[in-house]
Here is the input.
Amino acid sequence: MTSLKTTIAGLELETCIYNASGPLCTTAEELDDLGQSMAGAILSKSATLEYRAGNEKPRYYETGWGSINSMGLPNEGYKFYADYAKQAAQYGKPYIVSVSGMGFEDNATIIKHLAGNENIKAIELNLSCPNLPGKPQTGYDFEQSRALLNRVFEVAQQPLGVKLPPYFDMPHFEMMAEVLNDFPISFATCINSIGNGLVIDTDQECVVIKPKKGFGGIGGDFIKPTALANVRKFYTLLKKDVDIIGVGGIKNGMDAFEHILCGASAVQIGTQLMREGTGCFARIAGELQEIMNKKGYSSINDFKGKLKDME
Ligand code: RRO
Here is the structure.
C-alpha cells in the first residue's frame, strides 16, 4: 500500500499535500472547505493584528503559466484565526496559523496570544510578503530576521517554522541558513512568490493588476525551478531536524514528486488551488501515488531528499 503520510514539526499528516497560505484560506467558509478536502493540514492566510481589506482590486491575475498577485495581506485579524481553531479541530488534521505582523511587537503579540491554544498545532511565520508598499521583505535582511526570531522565540510555545522568500545567490542561501540554524525552528517553507514581477496585457498595453503600478508576486509554473533550488539548498544547509516544506509551481503529482526528491517533507499548493479549488488535493495525491507505485516506492521517505548528482 502506497502511503502519502508524513510528519512535519512533529505533527502527523495523513497526506503530505496541503494548501499554501494565501489562496482560499482567509474566511471560515474557505477554511472549512480545506477541512473537508483531502488536504493533509489546514493553513490559514497570514494574520495581522487587525482586520485588513488588502490592496485595491484587481489584485490577482492568472495567465497560462501562472499568477501575479498584490493582495496586500487581506485577512480577518489574528483573533479570528485563533478562535477558528476550535472549529478546525473537527476535521482531524493539523490546523496551522500563518503570522505576518507589521513589526516585531505585532508578531510577538500575535504569537503570545496563539500560545495557549491547543487546537493550533504550529505557526508559520511569514518572512516574505512582497506586496506591502514601502515595507521590505524581512527574509532579505538577515540581521532583521535574526532579531525577529530572537523576539518571537521568547513567546512561542507551539512548533514554529518560517515562510521564506526565494533566494537566488549561493551566499544568500548560506547566510539565511546560518541565521535559521541558531534557532529551534521546526520547519522552513520554500518559497513565497517571486516578488515584484510584472505581467503585461499587450492588447491593452497595460499592466494586469492595479496596486503598485502592476508589480506583484509571481506564482505558478515559472517559479518551479527556483522553488526546487530553494528546497534543495535549505534541505542540505539546515539542521537535520528542520522539515522543509516545498511550494512553488506544483500542479500535478510529478511536480510534487520533484519537490520531495529535493528534500520536501510536505508540499503546499498555491496557484493551482486558486485555479482548481480544493479538488486539487485528491487529484495530485492520486497522481503522486501512481508515480510511486510505478517506481516501487511505498512511502515518501523512500525517495525524500534522494536527488542524485551527475557522476
Ligand atoms: O497578501 C499578499 O499580498 C501576499 C502575501 Br501576505 C504573501 O506572503 N505572498 C504573496 O504572494 N502575497
In short: The two ends are 33 Å apart (CA to CA). The first helix runs from residue 28 to 36. Residues 6-54+73-194+221-302 form a domain with the TIM Barrel fold (CATH 3.20.20.70).
